[in-house]
Design a protein that fits this description.
single chain; alpha+beta; Alpha-Beta Plaits; 4-stranded antiparallel sheet; 7 helices; 15 strands; globular
């Protein structure tokens, strides 16, 4: 029996193979660093067959791997990108020790330590990184000075940052108070750049120390800075239930809506991720209205003449 060819978008294949996140894979394609069957490909819509096509990135062949999921305890003084133009220590130094080729999910600031996930599952990384997923992230932050109840309420309700953005409500409580510093436990569901630092600065404080304790309910408990471990089956199951599966359903719904719009010939607002696999909309062609078949006329039978 002949195998049914399954084509996927090139950037999706690269993400699933653990080369990079889908966004980064798109950059690699646009930069001309990806070849398919020996030919450089720069078109993002290109589709490939992973069983037949030879795919290379920077001259190295890409081979699909079994999905792998790890939690890493990121140390302070390290960037979470795989390469740093300034030559600073990179999380790549840790991830290179993992048997599978994985990449970090999300980011942590250079001076922030704590939990970060790593995987070669591009769809899981996408689900956990999308703002609409509202993944909870819990930190312990060392604020300068004594934090008043008014400041705590402001953090809980939302803070206006330096660019005018108002943060979503956060779960905040005081862990301990020391001489001229206050340790706060803060849980947010956003990932703005240096968000907790900027929240503190907007309220007249500074953050001297920041550690991420949890990401999506997963901790690095028992791991020293620089160490990692595979996710436990229960941890992975929770991630799939709360983030991956809803993400897949949202994508499927977006595709269905776009297909309906294509049939009707209507415009649709495309989401770069959710409608990734949707076919381009085709103009609707008028169809003749179906008409019900008419019943055949009964033949009249001659009446018998009266005698």
């Amino acid at each position: 029996m002949a195998r049914i060819m399954a084509l996927v978008r090139l950037q999706k294949y690269l993400a699933q193979a653990g080369v990079a996140s889908r966004r980064k894979a798109e950059e690699l394609i646009a930069q001309g660093r990806v070849r398919v069957n020996g030919v450089i490909v720069t078109e993002l819509g290109t589709k490939v067959d992973d069983h037949r096509d030879r795919i290379e990135v920077n001259g190295r062949r890409v081979v699909s791997e079994k999905p792998a999921y790890y939690v890493v305890h990121k140390p302070r003084g390290m960037v979470t990108t795989m390469h740093d133009p300034e030559g600073r220590p990179s999380i790549k130094e840790i991830l290179d020790k993992i048997p599978e080729r994985v990449f970090p999910v999300g980011r942590l600031d250079y001076h922030t330590s704590g939990v970060i996930l790593a995987t070669n599952d591009g769809e899981m990384a996408e689900a956990l990184s999308r703002p609409r997923s509202k993944v909870p992230k819990t930190y312990v932050a060392k604020f300068t000075g004594n934090v008043s109840e008014e400041t705590l309420q402001a953090l809980r309700k939302g803070v206006t940052l330096d660019d005018g953005y108002v943060t979503k409500p956060a779960n905040v409580f005081v862990e301990r108070v020391e001489d001229q510093v206050t340790w706060l436990n803060i849980t947010i569901s956003e990932g703005k750049n240096r968000q907790i630092h900027r929240m503190a600065e907007a309220l007249g404080h500074q953050v001297f120390r920041l550690v991420r304790l949890e990401f999506a309910g997963i901790t690095a408990e028992g791991l020293r800075p620089g160490q990692f471990r595979p996710l436990e089956p229960k941890e992975l199951e929770k991630l799939k239930k709360h983030y991956l599966n809803p993400h897949k359903r949202a994508k499927a719904n977006a595709l269905e809506e776009q297909r309906k719009a294509a049939l009707l010939g209507l415009g649709v607002d495309e989401d770069d991720d959710l409608a990734d696999e949707a076919p381009p909309a085709r103009p609707a062609t008028p169809r003749p209205r179906p008409t019900a078949p008419r019943a055949p006329k009964k033949k009249s039978t001659p009446r018998a003449k009266k005698p």
